[in-house]
Amino acid sequence: QVQLVESGGGLVQAGDSLRLSCTASTRTFSRYTMGWFRQAPGKEREFVAAISWGTDSTIYYADSVKGRFTISRDNAKNTVYLQMNSLKPDDTGVYYCASRYIDDSSWGSWGQGTQVTVSS
Fold first, then answer.
1. How far is CA 79 from the centre of its chain?
2. CA–CA–CA angle 71, 74, 75 (5° rounding)
3. Interval 71-117: pLDDT, tens
4. Which of 41, 45, 37 is nearest to 61 (CA)?
5. How far apart are CA 42 and CA 40, in angstroms?
6. Is the Cα dihedral 116, 114, 44, 46 positive or negative?
7. What is residue 111's three-state secondary structure?
């Protein structure tokens, strides 16, 4: 199990930006695909973005955030980032970091979440 800790959430107005960080407690961080999910009250958790473990660092985005959010990673720091620009009230929710190891088909570890609130 990998311990994941998110940070960087907060209260912002529509149009503002935030950068979330997630640090992982593993010595093989480069072998993990990393992802971001979010959950609004009363709704199911939804996928936001992911970046693969491979040398090409393949990136995936949900259509709802494409063009506004950017995921990146720094393997030397065991950290994955989510840069969120042009935030909208619909982006409000608890954002979770997740990891999965190499060829695993499911997400193995989850962080505790960080709250993002976007006011109009």
1. 11
2. 125
3. 999 999 999 999 999 999 999 999 999 999 998 989 999 999 999 99
4. 37
5. 6
6. positive
7. coil
